[in-house]
Write a structure and sequence with these properties.
It is built from 13 helices and 13 strands. It is α/β, with parallel strands linked by helices and 391 residues long.
């Protein structure tokens, strides 16, 4: 039986972000294949500390992992002098020697986390070790502990592009740092064709396209005439989404019909003023019913990189998507893909109104959405690529 160690730093017990969708779907793949999986993540932050056992139970009860390791990133501070001399000083020394000083990629690892992860490696043997995010690449820098395991870095995103707006951004050093970290692995997983191309041009390691996948097993459809909402907008409260929501409600919303029905789901609601007539859902455990009950999905992203999970989820439900140019990042087709694209507020609003009023256009875009999803993001397609990776 194949043994896999999968490190993913975020709390998968709270599935409130697109990156967690990828993690859960990968765990489901392992389950279907009968692999023995050890799942490693971080101990929860203060706000979530009481949910640690819930996360462990979720993974174990659903047979998504055989063992769960929640690892400490930092010790309790206690005496500040002792904390600095025993931990912080050694972290600073590690950062100084491990990473280029002018790289804009943040330092995520700590000596405490690195040692805790290495304890897992010492106690077990694995066939494959998967690390999420280039910021965590240093977890497997001690090759003597790998015991012959194949190492895979699941990039999730092109990190250099994420930090291009930082002050004193240094493209050359940052990009070289990212490629250097990727080259320390046997295989690199890219989430989109664009990233596969970029990484493939510079990486010595094998670069494999492993797109986002969505489970279609529980998706249901409703006739368009019976849908409750005209528009559905799903977003967290990161800086890119806040900027995008401000643009949509300031520039586009005033151009839409007064009686339009909009459902907004996620933490982005905290950044949207109360004056707007929208239905707000702070958190939805399952988005299927909202996609099924909506006519159009919105993705007004102005900045950010990588595949937009909310777009792929909408396409899986056959929903046309009205988006900006950033909304189609990562899609293999830039046209005839179920998305109507405009970075102009008037054009964005016109695309919404056209889909609501023209049944022929709506039906065509819905068909394009389903075709793109089935050909590029369905479970059956991605499982074949994963089978190849683990063979």
């Amino acid at each position: 039986m194949k043994r896999v160690l999968y490190f993913f730093p975020d709390n998968v017990g709270r599935q409130n972000a697109g990156n967690k969708t990828r993690a859960i779907q990968l765990l489901k793949y392992f389950k279907q294949k009968g692999y023995q999986v050890d799942f490693a993540s971080l101990k929860h932050e203060k706000a979530d500390q009481e949910t640690e056992q819930d996360t462990v139970n979720f993974l174990i009860d659903n047979k998504l992992a055989d063992k769960v390791y929640l690892l400490p990133r930092k010790p309790g501070k206690g005496n500040p002098i002792v904390y600095f001399l025993k931990y912080k000083l050694w972290d600073l020394i590690y950062y100084w020697f491990a990473y280029p000083l002018k790289s804009n990629i943040p330092t995520f690892l700590t000596i405490r986390l690195k040692h805790a992860f290495e304890d897992v490696l010492k106690a077990n043997s694995y066939d494959d070790i998967i690390i999420s995010y280039v910021t965590c690449a240093g977890l497997v820098s001690n090759k003597s502990l790998l015991k012959g395991a194949k190492t895979i870095i699941d990039t999730h995103d092109f990190i250099t592009a994420q930090f291009k707006y930082k002050r004193n951004f240094n493209l050359g050093v940052t990009f070289q740092d990212e490629i250097s970290r990727l080259n320390s692995f046997d295989e690199v997983w890219a989430i989109s064709h664009e990233e596969q191309y970029v990484f493939g041009q510079f990486c010595k390691s094998n670069v494999r396209l492993v797109p986002l996948m969505i489970d279609m097993d529980h998706i249901t459809e409703q006739p368009v005439a019976l849908k409750k909402y005209d528009l559905v907008y799903v977003a967290s409260d990161n800086v890119h989404n806040k900027r995008s929501a401000d643009w949509f409600f300031d520039k586009v919303y005033p151009l839409l019909p007064a009686d339009i029905k909009i459902c907004v789901i996620g933490l982005i609601n905290k950044s949207i003023p109360a004056q707007y007539k929208i239905e707000r859902i702070a958190y939805a455990e399952n988005l299927d019913e909202y996609y099924a009950g909506s006519k159009i999905a919105l993705c007004p992203m102005l900045t950010g990189t990588g595949v937009k999970v909310k777009v792929v989820e909408a396409l899986a439900h056959g929903l046309p998507v009205v988006c900006t140019l950033r909304g189609i990042d990562g899609l293999p087709n830039k046209r005839l893909n179920g998305c109507l694209v405009s970075d102009d507020p008037a054009g964005f609003a016109a695309n919404i109104i056209t889909l609501l009023n023209d049944k022929a256009v709506y039906a065509a875009q819905s068909a394009f959405a389903k075709e793109l999803f089935n050909n590029s993001f369905s479970k059956s397609v991605i499982y074949k690529e994963l089978d190849s990776a683990f063979n």
